[in-house]
Write a structure and sequence with these properties.
α2 packs antiparallel against α3, α3 packs across α4 and α4 packs parallel to α5. β6 and β7 form a beta hairpin. The protein folds into three domains: 65 residues; 49 residues; 151 residues, Heat Shock Protein 90, CATH 3.30.565.10. The two termini are 42 Å apart. It is of the alpha+beta class. It is built from seven helices and seven strands, in the order αααβαββαββααββ. The strands form two sheets. Strands 2-4-5-7-6 form a five-stranded mixed sheet, covered by helices on one side. The protein has a two-stranded antiparallel ribbon with strand order 1-3.
């Protein structure tokens, strides 16, 4: 699943064994020097300090590697829990809807309502599988397909998918993208970027949802800035960088009670980089909303 090469547990174990053996060897050598050498006490003190510093440095590196491994393991276990929830919830909904449709005494209009629920569950599963597959592919070289793209159409498709999934009204997501704004880029990657960011904005907002999307050209038209702002739960300053890590989810109740795998922003960051752009997250703090800035080359000549 991980796009990066899986770390081997043998590396920190080997470093630990090496540091212990080195410490024992240095202590034995120091004792031998004290017994058989005529070196002055000052030099012995200097040699001892250097030896001890080196040992402590190796042990500190070992401790850091262990901490990083533990964090990675926690993130992966969290990802597994999230995957289980993301798969079981829509599947349970689909099963219940199918069982209900099999009844003969359904009231009028119930069939269409159940079909809508099933469609929403399928959309949720599709979006989840797309994110997992995209995250897996991003570990390999990805060839972007740059073609002439109408940005407003790409944004509208992504927004409609999010509206349908969360059953939102039109006024809850507002879009301000010039209809004549065109760029040479990968429309599939662009749609994935917008869909993930808008879905995050909706998911981490409490009703009434207010998400604003706008785009503008910068300077001579060679750069595009896309902004997606919400009035949701926001984040603390120390979470800014971590939010882009794979599997990362903030340890807050407001985050834990919402479904998610910690892959969305990781996918967005990787796709933005593949397109030659930059991604920045801004928030005034918890419960102060979030603004995501995406800057991309348009491929247009001035």
């Amino acid at each position: 699943m991980s796009p990066r090469r899986r770390r081997s547990a043998s590396i920190p174990i080997a470093i630990g064994i090496f540091s212990v053996a080195l410490a024992i060897a240095m202590l034995v050598a120091w004792i031998l020097v004290l017994v058989y050498s005529d070196i002055g006490q000052t030099w012995l003190l200097v040699l001892g300090i250097i030896s001890l510093s080196f040992i402590l440095l190796v042990l500190a590196g070992f401790a850091v590697m262990l901490v990083l491994e533990q964090r990675e393991i926690r993130r992966q276990f969290g990802f597994i829990d999230s995957v289980t929830h993301e798969l079981k919830s829509p599947l349970a909904g689909l099963k219940l809807s199918l069982e209900t449709l099999a009844r003969e005494d359904l009231p009028e209009g119930a069939t269409e309502h159940l079909r809508g629920m099933m469609h929403g569950d399928v959309e949720r599963l599709t979006a989840f599988i797309d994110d997992v597959l995209t995250a897996n592919r991003l570990g390999h070289a990805r060839q972007v397909q740059r073609v002439d793209t109408e940005l407003s159409a790409v944004v509208q498709r992504a927004v409609e998918r999010v509206r349908s999934r969360h059953e939102l009204h039109d006024h809850e997501i507002t879009v301000s993208v010039p209809p004549d704004l065109r760029m040479t880029s990968d429309p599939t990657a662009l749609e994935t970027i917008v869909r993930n960011l808008v879905d995050n904005a909706v998911k981490y907002s409490d009703p009434p949802v207010q998400v604003h999307i706008n785009a503008e050209l910068l300077g001579n038209g060679r750069q595009l800035r896309l902004r997606i702002a919400d009035h949701g739960i926001g984040f603390a300053p120390h979470e800014r960088r971590r939010a882009l890590h794979r599997f990362y989810r903030a340890d807050r109740e407001a985050v834990r009670r919402r479904p998610g795998t910690g892959l969305g922003l990781f996918v967005v960051q990787a796709l933005v980089s593949a397109l030659g752009g930059r991604l920045r997250l801004d928030s005034a703090g918890e419960n102060q909303g979030t603004t995501v800035h995406v800057q991309l080359p348009t491929g247009n000549r001035p």
